[in-house]
Amino acid sequence: MFESLQRRSLLKMAAGTAATGWLWRGGTAQAAATTGTAMTGAVTNTGPLDTLVFGDTASESAHGLTATLSDVVPGGLGQAARVLNAPQTAGFWGGTLSATMACKPRGVTYITIKLWGSESGADLGRLQLFAEGRQVGHYHLGAVDPLDIASDDPRTPERFYFHTLPLPVDLTEGKKAVSLEVRSMGRIAGYASSADEYYKDMTGPSRTIYRLYTHDEPYFALAADDVTGTMPALATRTSPGSEVIDTINARVTARAAAEAARPSAQLDLWYLDFLARAYGMSSTGAYRHIAVPPQIARSLDGVYWKYVADSTVMTGSSQQWMGLGRAGLVLLGLADELKPLLDEPVLGSPYGLTNAGFEFGTTGWRSSIWSGSGTASRDTTVYRTGHASARVTVPSAGTVGYTTSAKIPVDQGTYTYGAWIKTDGVGAGSAFLDVLFYDASGTPVGGDNKVHASAGTHDWEHVTTALTTPGGATQVTISIRLSGAGTAWFDDLTMVKPEGSSYAPVIRRDAWTKMLLDSREYWRQNVPQYTNQAIICAIGLYLADRGLTYLGSDDAWGEKKARDHIYQAVGLVPWLGPEKADGTPTMPLGGSYYQVTTKGISKELGYAGNYGELQEWLSMVYDAVIGIGGVEDTTLHSHLLKIAKARTVFHCPALDGDGYKSMRMEAIIGWRDTEYPGKVAYDEGNKWDGHPLRLAALLKDPDYTSYAQQSITDNQAFHVLEEAAGLTASARTNLNLLSTADDYAYITGATGSGAQLPMTPGQPDFVFSDEENGLVAVKHGDEILYASLYWRARWGVNRLARVHHISAAGIERSATVRQEVKYIADGRAFTEPDWVNWEFTVNDLDIPDGGFNPPGDALHQAYAGQVLPLAKAPDDVPERDPGVESPYAGRASFYRCAYGPYLIAMNTTADRSYTFTTQGFGESTNLVTGAKVSADATLRVKPGTTVVLRRR
C-alpha cells in the first residue's frame, strides 16, 4: 500500500477492515500487508532534493524566485539571507517569497527552512508555507504548523536551526517540481475573542530566512558545507541574585498587611486565599491579626451577594474550573477563628442588622453629624465582644453618630431593639439608640424612638426598647448617637424579630453552604476532560465539599468521596468524567481511562509540554488535601512526587534569553504549545499560579530538592522568580509568590541527594518511553531526542510524529514527519475540512469552526479532504461522531518512526506483541538494552514497551 493511495480507496479500505483487523499505513515507501506483523522501510540520508539559497542571485534565479516586500540582508555568520517586510499600509500579511523547487513524484516530499536562532521577539511574527497556492497546515495547534512562530526568547543563540514540514502526498503526486511560497504575517493572539484582536498587524521585518530545502526523508541531512554555527561557551548567570527573594517578600508582606487592614470587602477569592494563608505565616503582618477573621467573613459575605446577583461568578474564568471551591480552602485555613461567626447574619442581609458589632469595619453604617461637631470612628482598642466597637466623641456641643446605611425591611409586630453603650463624661440623655420607621416609599412614619444610656462615666450598659411596627411602616433605620460633650462607645446592637414572623436575615452558615453546594453540584456535572483542567476542577469539588463538611451540611459527601475526585483527576483511579444529576458517572471515555499515565505523564491528547506543566496544580492538590486540608495521605504524596519526577525528563539544557546556561521545558513536541523554545525552568516556570521552588518545598524529596538547588546554583531560580513577579501584581501572582521566602529558606537549608536533572550534560544516558502517550525521550551522550508519536491526532490516525533533535554540537532540528502505524480501525473516517486557522472546533466558545478566517482573500488548506481513519475505542466508550475530538480516534496500537540515526518502535497495547525489521536501517544499538542489532534483524516488541535503535 503506497502513500499515493487515493482518498476514495482509503475510505473504502478503512470501512472494509473494521471487522477483519489491522490496517498498515506506510511511511516513506511501503508497509506490510494487512495480514502481516512485520514492518520494513529503508532509511537512507541522500541529502536534499533541492536547495534554494536566499540572497544568492544564481540560486534565486534558478528557482524562479519572486520576492515582494523583501530585502537581501547580511545574515548570521556572514550568510546570505532575506527578510520579509511589513506592508506599507498597516496589515496582517507582509512580504512573500515564491519559487519552484524539486519534489518527489511518489511518496512524501518534506520542506525544511533554515533560520537564525539568535533572533527573538514576538514582533518578528510568523512564516507560513504555501504549496501550489494552498496553505500547508494551520496557524493554531494544527498537526502541521507554520514554518516559524517567533517568540520572545531566541531559539538557538549563535546557531542556525531547521524546521521540517511534510507536504500532502496528493499535492506532489506524479510531479517533479512544486510551487512553494513563504508568506510573512503578524502575531496571533490565541485567546482573542474576535478576528480583529486575533490577527495582529506586522510591525517590522520578519525573521531572517536563509535557505529552503526539499527532501524525501524525514530527517534532513545537512551538506558538509552548510554553515550551522557553534554553541557559545557556557557561562553561569550572575544576576539577579537572592535580593529577588527579599523584593518579592517585601511586596507580598506589604500586600498581606493591606489586605488585613482593608476597609471594605475583598471579592477576589485569590486574595481571600492569599489572606487566609498569610494569617498563618509568622513572616507577614497578617499573622494572627485580629482583623483577619472578620475581614474574611465580611468578604465571603460579599462573594455570596455577588454570586446571588450574578451566578456566572461560579462559572466564569476568574476562578477557572474551581468555581467557588476556593472559598472552602479559606474556611479550612481559619476554621477555629470563623466558627463564632457562622451563625450570624450575612452582612447586608435584609430583615436584620448588618455588622452589629463593627467587627467588619463600618460596613452597613454611615457616619452622620446632625448638628455641631464631633467624630465617629471604629475603635479596635475598646470593645465588649469581638475586636471592635463604634466610638463617638463630641468636644463641646453637637449631635454625632452612625446610622444604618440602608433602610432595613421590617414585619408587623413587636421587635426588640438594643445596644450596649459605654460612656465617658456624658450628660443625661446624651448617649442613645434611636429607631425611626418608614413606609414603602421612604416617608417617615411617626417620630424618633429613643432609648438612653445613663449619664456620666460607666462600663458597658445594655439599653433596649420594644417597639411595635406602626401601621403602614415597612422599613426601619437604627442610629447610635451622642448629643452633647463626652465620648460614648456602642457595641453588639440587636434587632430581635417578633415571634411568628416569617422574615429573617440570611445566616452565614446557610449562605456559604448554598454557594459551595451550588458550585459543587454544577462542576461535578461539568468536569472538563484535559488533565490540568480536570485537576483544577477536582480541587474545586474537593474544597467545596470540605467547606460543606465544615459548615455542617447534610449534603456534604465526606472525605472519601470528595477525595475520590482528586484521585480521578491525578490518575490514581480511573477518570469517570462528569456526573449526572443523580450522581451517576457519565464515563465519556469509558471506565478505564486514566488522566495520568502509569509513567506519570498527563495524558490529554498526547504530551502536554510547556503549556501543560502541572506543578502549580500539584502544589494546590497538596495544599488542599495534605497541607492546609490536614489529611495524611502517603499514597497521594507519593503519586504527586511520581508525576513531578516524570516531568523532569522534559527539561533540557539550553541558553536563556541572555545567553547563560539554563534548562528549558521541552515545548516543541508539546501538543498544546504554540511558541518555541519552552520557558526557562528547572521545575515550574514563570507562571501566575506557581513558582520554581514551591513543589520541592512541599514534597521534600531529596532528588527533587536537589533539582531545585541546581536551579539556584545556576542562578536561574532568581531569574525565573523575577520574571514571575513581573507578570503582573495581581491576586494570582501574589498568592503564587506568598511562600517564596519560606520555600527558599527550606531549599537552601535542606540536604538533597545531589541529583541533577536527567538531561543535564554529563548525566547518564537513558531512554524514557511512555507508551500510553506515544512519547519518547532519549539522552545519548550530549545528543537529545524528543518524539511525540501520537501527535495532535484529534480526529483520526494521521500517521504524523513530532520530533525535536539536538545534536551533540547543539544544532537543533524540529520536524513533523510521516511514520508507519498499525491500529484497529472502527470502520469510520474523518475528512479534514478546508480550514486554515485552527484544525478543530471550539464548541463552548463563540468562535466559528476552524477559528477566525484571516484578513484578505479567502485561503484554502492543502490538507483539506485528507481522510483520517478512526481507530477503535474500547468497548465501553460511548461512540463519538467523526470530527468530535477523542483521545482514542487517532491513537495507534503500534508506531514505527525512523528519524535520522534513530528508529523507534512502540507498542501501545497491553495484550499484543508486534515485530518489525531493521532491513535498510543498518547496524544499530538497542539503546534500551545495549544489545547490538544487525542490519536485517527482526525484533519483537512486547506489549507496553518501546525499542529505540540508534544506527552505529
From TrEMBL:
Classification via InterPro entries: TAT_signal
> Domain of life here?
Bacteria
| Name listed for the protein in its UniProt record | Tat pathway signal protein
- Phylogenetic classification of the source organism: Bacteria, Bacillati, Actinomycetota, Actinomycetes, Kitasatosporales
